[in-house]
TrEMBL record:
Residue ranges of every copy of the Globin-sensor domain listed in the record: 20-187
Record's protein name: Protoglobin domain-containing protein
Tree of life domain: Bacteria
Source organism of this protein record: Georgenia daeguensis
Gene3D superfamilies named in the record: Globins (1.10.490.10)
Leader sequence segment: none
Record-linked InterPro entries: Globin-like_sf, Globin-sensor_dom, Globin/Proto, Protoglobin
Length: 191
């Protein structure tokens, strides 16, 4: 269990998505055993670079008012303690994406992450007054920067190009799959 505020697998509500449905999503993004292995390697490479990755991502968000607004108060000013708290969880998410088994507990926490982007739970964990939700279109659109910006960090390992390609593709598939899971709370009907 991690000690990061608001990041608790043990208290996450069970996901409405079954392991069988997760396996179908994995098949849909062509995520197989070779990707699991490559993702573990990516986790080893990224382990000492998580804060640097977060610097890049936070810089990106900070340069786009419509994204930074999701972390801002009614006055339009960013809420620094909110950004800091989310940053800690975001760093743990990187680690967990690469290292944790994708089981029922992991699925439950993915559902929790999705809920925290919607009116159901946004702002509650950190007790802030910010936007009521993150528009789904931004979650989907952020797949690209969250995947593209990781590649230079993987390349810094000096590993062979084919290994870097495999790690990067596994990361991309993992992000797409998780964003698909995070959309579940946005779609109460036929998901």
């Amino acid at each position: 269990m991690t000690t990061i505020s608001g990041y608790d697998y043990e208290t996450a509500t069970a996901s409405p998505v079954s392991v069988e449905e997760l396996n179908l999503l994995k098949a849909s993004v062509l995520f197989g055993p070779e990707d699991e292995a490559a993702l573990r390697k990516a986790g080893e490479v990224l382990a000492d670079q998580v804060e640097d990755v977060l610097d890049v991502w936070y810089g990106f968000v900070g340069r786009h008012h419509h994204l930074l607004a999701q972390f801002s108060g009614p006055d339009g000013e960013p809420i620094s303690r909110y950004l800091t708290a989310v940053r800690g969880r975001f760093g743990q998410w990187i680690r967990d994406t690469c290292e944790r088994p994708w089981d029922e507990q992991w699925l439950a926490y993915q559902h929790e992450i999705g809920l925290r982007h919607t009116p159901y739970k946004k702002n509650r964990t950190d007790r802030v007054e910010s936007t009521t939700h993150v528009p789904l279109r931004y979650l989907i659109a952020l797949i690209y920067p969250i995947t593209a910006t990781v590649r230079p960090f993987l390349e810094s390992s000096g590993r062979p190009a084919e290994e870097i390609d495999a790690m990067h593709e596994a990361w991309r598939k993992a992000v797409i799959l998780q964003v698909a899971l995070w959309t579940r709370p946005y779609a109460p009907g036929p998901w």
